[in-house]
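Give me structure tokens for this 519-residue protein.
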Amino acid sequence: MKKSTMWLLAVVMFVAFFALLFLQVHYMKITISARNAQFDEAVRKSLNNVVKQLEIDQTYRYLQEDMIESENRYYQYRQPQYGGSSTMGKTSESTIATPSESGSDLKQGISGSNTPMDQSTGVFISPHHGAGSIPKTSYDMQQSLSKRYLHEQALLDEVILKIMYRASEEPIEKRIDFRQLDAYIRSELLSNGMNVPYSFQVIDYNNRVVYVSPGFNPKDEKAIYTQTLFPNDPPAKLNTLRVYFPSKQDYISAEMKFFIPSLLFTFLLLITFIYTIVTLFRQKRLSEMKNDFINNMTHELKTPVSTISLAAQMLKDPSITKSPEVFKHVTGVINDETKRLSFLVEKVLQMSLFDKQHTTLKMKEVDVNDLVVNVANTHVLKVEKFGGSLDIDLQAEDSLVMADEMHLTNVLFNLLDNALKYRREDVPLKLMIRTWNEGNKLLISIEDNGIGIKKEYLKKIFDRFYRIPTGNLHDVKGFGLGLAYVYKIVTDHKGTIRAESEVGKGTKFIISLPVITRK
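Here you go.
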């Protein structure tokens, strides 16, 4: 797959993902807004109904008080008229107690004249006709009920005037039963489908808190709803009811819980997609580097093979055997090219080691100090050949580690070979190998005074096939596998390795390995 195609795929996927995420967030905002508006509407409706119920209760209370007064005055008025007749008193009381049953008689007695009419014949009857008869009694009752109706109507007007002029003057705590108010609020909320906890406070027209139920929190203003009590009172006498819903946000977000797993799965897809794209680019880069490695390796293999083939052909010439010097030179060339070929084959084997993912290590107790001494003795001649020096400083007291001696030796060899490759021609090479302990760790450092490495390349030097760019200069041969091999072996030994370098001053590699703890 081409890089341009991969970039196009990545851009399309990112656009699609962020569009999906935007739609989800936008829909969530709309849903939360609608839920919030629904909550506000239900609360407003409930509080309006509560206020109406309080007004009805106040009117009913005033009516009760005036009805009691009117009944007392009425019975005082009726007793002389009927001469204390118990039968008529009962009849009148019975008729008064059920006004709905005699409503037609009341309307007839009030809206028409005072002259009764026979309903069966449609003939008007004189008030003095049949003085002792039933029509006479009916006429008297109608007259009595008519007077009482007019009287009660006047009392009702009086109640209305009292509500208008007296009710607003009374303290709010006398006009409202707060327990009944709590019951009204709860009932109205339940009738609107809101079974949510709440608390409330009542404030009078002097801005004084008259009553506060437990749990009221005035700090969260967004969860407090205000309603005017008795809104028909004069503007200067208005009282206020404030209701607080502590679980408003929980109620609003109760149906939004499915958005959380939706967002989690969306981000999981994003992470998976990013990982896939990064892996694709990494594999593409590794594939390109591997192709370069194979091309380079093929070219490198051709050279020793060609040289050995040419030398073998020269050995077939009988005249070569007669010249010992030429024979020695040819055999030397074959020997050198064979070593070179062996080195290249070893690099190929190192590459196959990475493809296995897991390295088979033969672990045993290894004294790192002894290992450093052996490696230093092997390299001291090579260093002196270039006019350099190699020193060791073995400060580690606990130097035993569990390691594969061969691979750990190759690690030190690779680091020392790199120091020789990337030395400065104008400065004598100086190498220093140190060991010391830090806690339960053994540290090994290999320091040189070579050309150094730029900081931006330090993080990449342990990558497979990576080589520090040097422009068109190819004065040092390599395949970018040496430090990758070092890193893999060290990590397989449960250790760490890091590099410190400064251009023109040298490089230091520090290896940390766990020591063997003795109980």
